[in-house]
Amino acid sequence: RELDKAMAGSFKLSYYNEYKSYLSMSEDEDVEKCVVANGDEAEVNIKDGKDGKKKKKKKEPAQTVSFADYYRYATGLDWFFITIAVFFSMAKGFSWPAVMIIFGGMIKSLTDPNIDPLSVDMSGEMKKFAYYYVGVGAANILTGYFGTAFMDLAAERMAHKIRISYFRAIMRQEIGWFDKTSSGALTTRLTGDIAKIKSGFSSKVGMAIQWLTAFLAGFVIAFIYEWRLSLVIMSTSPLLAIGGAAFSKVMVSFSSAQQKAYAEAGGLAEEIIGAIRTVIAFGGEKHEASRFNEKLDDSEKAGNRNGLFSGLSMGFTMFIMFGTYGLAFWYGAKLIGDEKATIEDVMVSFFNVLIGSFAMGHASPHITTMNAGRGAAYEVFKTIDRESEIDYEKEDGKELSPGYTAKVEFKDVDFVYPSRDDVQIMKGFNLVLEPGKTHALVGPSGCGKSTAVALIERFYDAKGGQVCLDGEDVKGLNLKWLREQIGLVGQEPVLFSTTIEENIRFGREDVTKEEIVAACKKAFAHKFISDLPDGYNTLCGERGAKLSGGQKQRVAIARALVRNPKILLLDEATSALDNQSEGIVQQALEEASKGRTTLVIAHRLSTIINADKISVIGDHKIQEEGTHTELLAKEGLYHMLVTYQQNVQDGDEDAVGDLPTYDEVMEASSTKTPLDRQDSTGSNVSKDSIRRRRLTSQKSYVSATSDKQDMVDVDLEDGKDKKKKPEAEASFFEIMSYHNAYEIVAMIIGCIGAAINGAAMPVFAVLFANVITDLAALAVPPTDPNVPKDYSNTNRWALYFALLGVAMLVANVVQIYFMTLLGSSFTRRLRYKSFRALLRNNLEFFDRPENSIGALTTRLNDDAAAVSGATGVRIGTFIQNAVSLGVGIGIAFSASWKLTLLTLACIPFVAIAGSVQMLQLTGDTKSQQYEDSGKIAAESIENMRTVVSLSLEKNRIANYILALKKPYKSQTRHVHLFGISMGFGEAVIMFTYAAVFTYGAHLMDKKEVDFNDVLKVFSSVIFGAMTIGQTMSMLPDYGKAKASAFNIFSLITSEPKIDAYSDKGQKPAVEGTVEFRNVKFNYPTRPELAVLQGLSFKAMKGQTVALVGQSGCGKSTSVQLTERFYDVLGGSVNIDGVDVKSINVAYLRQQMGLVSQEPILFDYSIRDNIKYGALHREVSDDEVKEAAKSANIHNFITELPEGYNTRVGEKGTQLSGGQKQRIAIARALVRNPKILLLDEATSALDTESEKIVQEALDKAREGRTCLVIAHRLSTIHNSDLICVIQEGAVIEQGTHSELMSMRGVYYGLNKSNSSK
């Protein structure tokens, strides 16, 4: 009570101030950015933490780097490549205007009225032009190769240097910079932004130059040949420009809205999958699927609107384009008829104006890509150019002599965190760590204990005062040398995804194997490592997930010891461990501390009783100092803390002389520790969560189940997953059968529009051939000069062009809009059904390594998106292309079957050329090749404190560069092949022109065809063939679509063994008796390691049963089996005598409330988080408040500005650990459970938070059956039954007093815990 009076108010004020400061930070940082391509300003929403309203601010124009700065990494060789590429790109850009000159000359030769066809060798004349086409084609091979390959080669070289420079710059930054920078944003820039930068360097630059050259050359040539016609054609350009800009602005708006909605849905999916155990425990699967579906609804609506305006945009463009054709031929006929121009002038001018106009459109996206690259480069280069305030690369700074004493002093230190400079952490802080002594820091959360560790490591610099080592300010010491003198062991140490030996070797590069073994023996880790199948070569898994907490701690201690540090920093190194693991680790720490200056931070005061000096922090500075005895004698704050912790222990203190020693207890109870420690949350304990967000790692396990989606073989010998590529694919008809009636109607209407669109190009070919014939007729001088020339035919064709434009306007709107409706609806349904089916899976599915959060969210997005390769707009394109080719071939055969056959023989080559061009248009980043380097980067950035404390920056950079080596070589080889393909793609079309016109001239000589027939055949078939190329380019996507469809359909139709969606199973009235009968179980990850081996115990209705034992003994497994997260392999788990396997899964879980060590809260309000506990029914506000009162959290909530409407942030990061725990208790209580499961619910809390939460738990247990897992034995003394578990079975059970009187393992553990 005295402690309550003295400290409760300050705790509430501390939490409240932290909460307010976090909100003030959010006002500036929690901004939802909207992508806007056109316009300088946009509105963005900023969450106001005070009243929840949204403010609107004007978005500043996107910042870019200058072109000179953009190419800062170009060397002399790169500039040589770029210069060659620019020259050949300009030459390639001139090729199409040149081809139009050749085409105009050819038409003049074939239609010149002054030439007698009988006296001219048509074949010979055409051979001349064929040579021209062949020459242009050969030139295109060279220009295509050099213009593409050399530009891409320079881009790859520059991007490679940027990747390395950017990662090196990230590794160079101080921790304060990381506090204000999202690790996700950094890894995204390493992949996405640098890919954009590379695209801005790549052959897209050459393409932009090519099309700009074609634009200039086209208009210049057009004006030279016929300036009047050029002006007439250009008169429609403003319509295209205005229409295009208007439609583009609207489409960008809808596209941004769609992408934003998809991003929100993806973020929601990631949050839900990351909290899957919580979702399953509270029966939230269907609720979360509905939430996900709501997000998808917004994206579907935006996509449909985008489809409508996309159709209007394309239709409007085609209408103006064909209208312009009609206008051009109408006016061209007038010029020819009036003898102001020849047919050659009209044709060359007409086609070159079109080329010039289209060239500008083709150049635009490439210019946009270049600008996007410059925009992406801004943040990347900004980081590269940033001078770190604490830079490990600087070689300056003093190194103390080898005989330095390692005395650490804090002299009047002031400090605030850079991310929250309005919250004072230290003010006038003074502390002395004597050489070779152990010094302990105690105090409430957020008082500055861990800050002291961070300042000694020089993660940050003090804002005032000094931190000194042997009298020297650490700012003046060489940074690398300083950190090499320090060994750091934290509460949740980070191990990297490599072997145990390599993880220890990170402590010192030149350490020998013998030194590693010696360090492990000191850390009490050698025995458990030696017992593992692969010993020191055992893989630790991501963040050490394949080791238990105690094992990770001991490996981390060994890693610190191989440094042979003079200073040892122990930050909560045992707070999250069970008694047995804590005892081993504590003994290792005490051994490691000998002869070293040691700073210990601990919430459990029993662990620091033997410290040479203890300092108590309060109000930003040291309030009390002295030994344990001295501080108790002062009867101050420390005395109150110790008194509280002793008072909550109610065990007997019998004759100490008769007690077994700790070593004797360990010898009696030691077992081989399982490699995997499965707990109920799989998440890390976060400290100071309000100050900074930390990524929670999910432990991965492999499942041996073989549902339809099981496609992984697990090699248990080496721990590596061997993925099988799924061989099965869904057929086209299976995909079609999944469409509903609404989608089928949309498909039919869209196909009608696609068929009209497909017929348009062959019809255009006929009109084009006829209009040229009639233009040629107008060029023939009339026999009677007084008879006016007949323009009726050309006028009719001009009108037909305009009508064709109207038809294409309607057809494009119908095709694109209705096919978009089809694709959006189908994709949305697949995403929803996939996610719903995903949440239906057992935990075994989520335990598999390949089913990590990132992998599942990526697969969820990619598979549904990939299926669109076989439906939606792709169906429309396929129908359009098929009709175009079919109608074109029909028209061609009607004109000349011989010439048609020759043209068809050229189709494969033209189709291949079209495919290559489409690949160039869509691009191929080969981003998957950078997965290995991305993993290294992500692991390093997320664990930056560990990297910095171990001075691993250079090691991480070297590994990153090594991982880049293979994809870099592959890409530099690929550019040459790509360049040749692009050159061939352009050349084959020219070669086809030469072949067709040469053979056409031969047939004309034989009077089998006329020039009109030649043009019909050529235009009809060639236009159709080019659409084949487009279709072929879609085949890889179609293949992916079938494979993805199979995956989705398999997932949707699969029925897991433990089905929360099923109505099957009994629904008996539950009273609450829980019984384990000879239960046998092992996790699928390690089937050779049994976790439970005949576990039996019984918790009667209303009883509290506590489970104790070492890490990995099966305590948390028991909770998971009670919830039926997994099924037992032998024996049974019974509720009121009924096997849980026969009870309806959802109903079973409704009877239980779960509170874990690190509970997951969702980014809702506090009210909605509490209501989450009873999603199966309506929960009133009165029930919410009553649950909050029972959880001892109501008063705190009401003191917040927004009360129960306060948002808790992602994973509850805006609340302290104790507050999260109490909200989690309220969440469990609101479902009014018959059975309460408490899994380490207070182990990671400080003394005051633990006291409050423990009171809430004691109140929550009243009248309920309760299973408790606790490492702190003092918290379970009042339990009705305590079961001691060893080797997967109960070896002792009874009440606390009964077990103490037995003087067995439990007795020894209690005495060991009390004596520390």
Question: How would you explain this protein's 3D organization?
Answer:
- The relative contact order is 0.10.
- The model is unreliable at about 1-60, about 650-725 and about 920-925 (pLDDT under 50).
- The protein has 42 helices and 25 strands.
- With about 1300 residues, the chain is an alpha/beta fold.
- The chain is elongated, with a radius of gyration of 38 Å.
Rg to the nearest angstrom? 38 Å
- Major pleated sheet: 6 strands, mixed
Strand runs, count: 25
Q: What is the topology, as strand order, of the major beta sheet?
A: 9-10-11-6-12-13
This entry's quaternary arrangement is single chain
Q: Please, how many helices?
A: 42
Could you tell me the strand content as a percent range? 5-15%
Helix/sheet category: alpha/beta
Average pLDDT, rounded to a whole number, is 78
Low-confidence stretches: 1-59, 648-727, 921-927
Report the principal-axis shape.
elongated
User: Helix coverage percent of residues?
Assistant: 55-70%
Distance between the termini: 25 Å
What is the topological layout?
Blueprint: H1 2-29, E1 31-32, E2 43-47, E3 54-58, H2 67-70, H3 76-111, H4 122-172, H5 175-179, H6 183-201, H7 203-234, H8 237-274, H9 276-281, H10 285-337, H11 343-385, E4 408-417, E5 420-433, E6 438-442, H12 449-456, E7 464-469, E8 472-473, H13 479-484, E9 486-489, H14 500-505, H15 513-522, H16 526-531, H17 549-561, E10 567-571, H18 579-593, E11 597-601, E12 613-618, E13 621-626, H19 628-634, H20 637-647, H21 662-669, E14 712-714, E15 721-723, H22 732-737, H23 741-778, H24 792-840, H25 843-847, H26 853-867, H27 873-895, H28 897-922, H29 931-942, H30 944-949, H31 953-1005, H32 1011-1033, H33 1035-1053, E16 1074-1081, E17 1092-1099, E18 1104-1108, H34 1115-1122, E19 1130-1135, E20 1138-1139, H35 1145-1150, E21 1152-1156, H36 1166-1171, H37 1181-1190, H38 1194-1199, H39 1217-1230, E22 1235-1239, H40 1247-1260, E23 1265-1269, E24 1281-1286, E25 1289-1294, H41 1296-1302, H42 1305-1315
Parallel strand pairs: 6-11, 6-12, 9-10, 10-11, 18-23, 18-24, 21-22, 22-23
Antiparallel strand pairs: 1-2, 2-3, 4-5, 4-7, 7-8, 12-13, 14-15, 16-17, 16-19, 19-20, 24-25
Helix pairs in contact: 3-4, 3-7, 3-11, 4-6, 4-7, 4-11, 4-31, 6-11, 6-29, 7-11, 8-10, 8-26, 10-24, 15-17, 17-18, 21-42, 23-24, 23-27, 23-32, 24-26, 24-27, 24-33, 26-33, 27-28, 27-32, 28-31, 28-32, 29-31, 37-39, 39-40, 41-42
